[in-house]
# Entry
Amino acid sequence: MPVKVSYFFMVLVWSTTPLGIVWSSESVSPTLAVLMRMLVGLLIGGLIVAITNIRVPWSKKACLLYFYSSIGIFGGMLLSYLAAKTVPSGIISLMFGLAPILSGLLAQQLLNEPKFSPIKLVALACALIGLYFVSYNQAQNSQTQGLGLLYVFLAVCFFSLSGVMIKRVQIAIHPMATTFGALVFVTPLFFIAWWLLDGQLHIQNWSAKSLWAIGYLGVFGSLVGALAYFHVLQNLNASTVSLTTLITPSFALSLGAWLNNEPLSQELIIGAVIILISLGFFQFGDKFLNRKKISTN
# Structure
């Protein structure tokens, strides 16, 4: 598959996933919705692995990779689904856009990466200001929505931690094998979470809209999106891939307002603009200043 097609699919899936989470949780309990999504992904992933004869290693190092991957899937997805009852999809996507900054902070502690440069620290401070604007109305509306924002923030923390820990495992595995192995690890955890937090089916309440959303996320969110991401990561430079964190929140906010009638308050728009500009400076500010210094010398 051409890398441009993979990049298009990655942006499409990441932009629509938050709205899919909200829709899938409308008539199905959040814990059951995410469990059903993982089951769909696991079954289809297993078929693909079997048909294509992709080797899925189960060595100690491979299992460690699957475990680290499952941290982000379980913590990130479970908390996102719980938050989707009260937090609009656009805000979920916007807060996940902060993942590169959180990953940078965690990488300093876990991977001994260099400390943030002054421009990155300024970008971090501005992003926090933008986050305040985004969350202000949500937290003011009710304690439930404030709790939902906390869930999303913790979900981003788990997602970022998972990405950093994965970098500690040096092993070459097919992207499909990594995806399938992580689903094998994480699906039982989602079953336990559903059993403990809900344990009910209530099939009579399920709507076609929620079921279609679960199916879409199971196929595209759990499989196609992951494969596209790994393909893009292998063929494009990191700065190009990082542009996705600037593109997807904008699309997700627009889709939420257009398809789900999610309100776009003045505070939300201001906060979103501040966060996206901050992410741009965080990702590319140092390179821009270095090029400017070289051109002037």
